[in-house]
Amino acid sequence: MAQRRSYGSYNDGCAAAHALDLVGERWTMIVVRELLLGPKRFTEIQRDVLGIGPAVLTQRLHDLEHHGVLRRRRLPGPGRADVYELTPWGHELEAVNTALSRWAVASPGLPLEADMSPDTVVLAMRAHARPVVGLAGERTVLLHLTDSRHDDDGDPVTYLATVSSRGATVERAPEPPSSAHAEVAACTRDWKACVIGGVPPEQLPSIRVTGDPAAVATLLSATTLSPDAART
């Protein structure tokens, strides 16, 4: 397969053009997106990025490692599996992912019926997160999201969301705290309907909320963006 010429080889010295040389190949930013919230094994990335073949994924990981966007690290203990994680420079691409998300939500062709991986739903929340004016103290919510794109009952991914008058954050929580104001268990399809479509959780019986429902409402008020509202 012939290697694609870089924009620089055409005497284009634009930094944005060079950025596209680094991450502009098909699937590259999608792979980066799936690593923004933490390291993953090869099989985990392939599971989360539907449609990518192992050969293409191997090449994209190799290219990103070569350019210093990610690194491969061997886990200690039995099995000694490798994980891929973004470098500090690679993590700066979340700002690019956020800008693309905020721009594309106004597209009339946005595939609202399509599903997302758990990390992608959370990244959408992070992209549109904002403070809750007048909120006293913090509200914490544990999210347990199951990938509804797969037929098997995979383990949910757990995230900790914190909302205050200063802002909202959502982080992956492999070791969640012992308590939170509320917990939500949902599949990605239904939670996306809440986050992107503005559907109240109580209208989706598959979403289970324990604890304080007001804390969940506060989280959604800080992270929900309706595409229809964005187009007006």
Annotation, overall tally of beta strands = 7
Widest β-sheet, arrangement of strands: 5-4-3-6-7
What are the segments in which pLDDT stays under 50 over at least 5 consecutive residues? 227-232
CATH architectural arrangement of the largest domain? 2-Layer Sandwich
**Count of domain modules:** 2
Look up the CATH topology of the largest domain: Nonspecific Lipid-transfer Protein, Chain A
Encode the helix/strand succession as letters: HHHHEEHHHEEEEHEHH
The CATH homologous superfamily of the largest domain: SCP2 sterol-binding domain
- Estimate the helix proportion, in percent: 25-40%
Secondary-structure-based class equals alpha+beta
Q: What does the oligomeric state look like here?
A: single chain
Summary of the model, kept short:
This protein has helices at 15-23, 28-33, 42-48, 54-66, 88-91, 93-104, 118-127, 188-195, 213-223, 227-231; strands spanning 70-74, 82-86, 139-146, 157-164, 167-172, 182-187, 208-211. The longest helix is centred in the N-terminal third of the chain and has 13 residues, at 54-66. With 232 residues, the protein is an alpha+beta fold.
